[in-house]
Amino acid sequence: xxxxxxxxxxxxxxxxxxxxxxxxxxxxxxxxxAPGFLSVANLSNVLVQSTILTMLAxxxxxxxxxxxxxxxxxxxxxxxxxxxxxxSLATKSMLLGLGAGLLVGAAxxxxxxxxxxxxxxxxxxATLGTLGMAQGLSxxxxxxxxxVGIPHSVRDIxxxxxxxxxxxxxxxxxxYAAFHGLLYHTRFGTYIFALGGNREALRYAGLxxxxxxxxxxxxxxxxxxxxxxxxxxxxxxxxxxxGLGLEFDAIAAVAVGGTSxxxxxxxxxxxxxxxxxxxxxxxxLNLISMPSxxxxxxxxxxxxxxLFLDGLRSRA
Amino acid sequence: xxxISKEAMMPSRSFLSQxxxxxxxxxxxxxxxxxxxxxxxxxxxxxxxxxxxxxxASLTFFIASGLTLVVLTAxxxxxxxxxxxxxxxxxxxxxxxxxxxxxxxxxxxxxGGIVGLLNGIMVTALRIPSFIATYGMLWVLNGLxxxxxxxxxxxxxxxxxRQIGSGYLFGLPIPVYLLLVxxxxxxxxxxxxxxxxxxxxxxxxPVAARLSGIPVARRLLLVYAVSGTMAGLASIIFLSRLNxxxxxxxxxxxxxxxxxxLIGGTSLFGGVGTVFGTxxxxxxxxxxxxxxxxxxxSANWQPLVTGIIVILAVWLDMKTRRRAQ
Lengths: 316, 325
Description:
The complex is a heterodimer. Chain A contains 15 helices and two strands. Chain A has helices spanning 2-8, 12-33, 40-49, 51-65, 73-91, 94-119, 123-142, 152-159, 167-185, 187-197, 199-204, 209-235, 246-256, 268-287, 292-315; strands at residues 161-162, 165-166. Chain A has a two-stranded antiparallel ribbon with strand order 1-2. In chain A, a hairpin with a 2-residue loop joins strand 1 and strand 2 (165-166). By secondary structure, chain B is an all-alpha fold. Chain B has one domain: ABC transporter involved in vitamin B12 uptake, BtuC (Orthogonal Bundle). Helix content of chain B is 78%, strand content 2%. Chain B contains 13 helices and four strands. The longest helix of chain B has 39 residues, at 2-40. Chain B is globular and about 55 Å long. Chain B starts with a helix and ends with a helix. The A-B interface holds A 69, 71, 115, 119-122, 124-126, 128-137, 139-140, 143-144, 245, 248, 251, 261-262, 291-301, 303-304, 307-308, 311, 315 and B 76, 78, 122, 126-129, 131-133, 135-140, 142-147, 150, 247, 255, 258, 262, 268-269, 298, 300-308, 310-311, 314-315, 318.
């Protein structure tokens, strides 16, 4: 089993160039044209702002490795962020708020997994349906209004530091370590490779691919719950459209990071670099006063180019 | 070669009768919803409301009809809503700048068609899976539209142009006539032309279709271009009906269009479905949303209900097909 995992890991030397080149090019470009880009304050800002995306892109990597997709992640993040806001406002407890976010997120993830694995609906349509549901619930629970007056305990998470390192970055690093351990050093991780690569083998090994698939989607939903806490803390409020579309940045990071949409292999470090690349792109365009619309279009182009290159590689 | 070609055509022919049954069930469902709404709400059966439902359904249908062809090939076009927004904004600008509605309409259709063609190129030449290619396109178009409009709103169009979306002819809204025209064209194209049958064949079995000599890439290009052009047409109707254009008008259009296609019985796995089914699908969805409106349910509930309907529609479709096999 272990060996199978080692074999299906992409050769890093083959992979590093793609996303690393993109990242270096973007950094070089914005160092040249965007004043203040290379300052420590700005770079640490890029990293802190990338933490929410990291929390979505890592589970998205696992989901895409199973030849799936989760279009509902941004909408679920919006909903969990609202849940965190509403519950922490009512109970004055950050932990209860986080618990509510986790619960709602995991429930949506579970529903996604159930629709994909058991009902057999193609992932992009199943999660498009749950996207609508999460978006609708966000509007309903908030009545279309912002939720303000969040307790300090929630707000402080975004601005606090631990040994000089911002807490969101600590959370993102811990998340990365957990996903790395999960994917490369546990049986469950090996099974995830098999879900994309060879589902039959799982069945012959006496495992249930459906349960594993549900677990992968549920992890995605739960992570959206944790990201919801960060989102609420960052905005110091809950807003019914806050996270909409963020799944696209996550998909972009995964695609740029070299995870294939068709071959069941994934690379977590690539996704992390992809997250930073997306963050640098948005930050740099922002610094040269490009409106957010241009940022959105640029990320769209980035995805299409990355997928095109992926298609070329898979045929080579 | 001809033998294989015939075999590839067979599925679509033999599904016709089953398609008829599926459409019949959906018509029954639509009537049932009508009956329930007529009981629950006094204003449902008023002429004004019924015309309103038809006009609303026609807007969804224009987008969904082109999308039906895409789904018939086992593809998906998630960019239709964003395409409507961009086309409407560009067509609106052209009408403002030149004062000529005809030129604006042509530009809107062309803009939609070009976007569709680009989708087709990504799917065929670049071989990017359709749902992800068109999802990328969605965000590119969104970005372009917001950048182009820069927060502005276009409004105030010539009275003649506004007739297209809000005018009446013999007591019926003009979009309803357009609906009938495109329902006819779409049905004839899909069921009665070689190209239409080839589209079914591609969806049913792309390998068999290619082996039997169907130019798969060219048909796919056509299908995505048609879907884009229909989004362009919808943008014209929107522009003329709303008498204004804003960057965000497309955001709530994609999910209902996909819902209409799926409720209408077109299979996500390709090769099965009809344009007429999509019309019924658009009608059912509009009836549900209209009913919620009449029963004064907040509009905030619409995305939730549409999402549930999408999933229910696919689930029911898969269940009935599994039983049929």
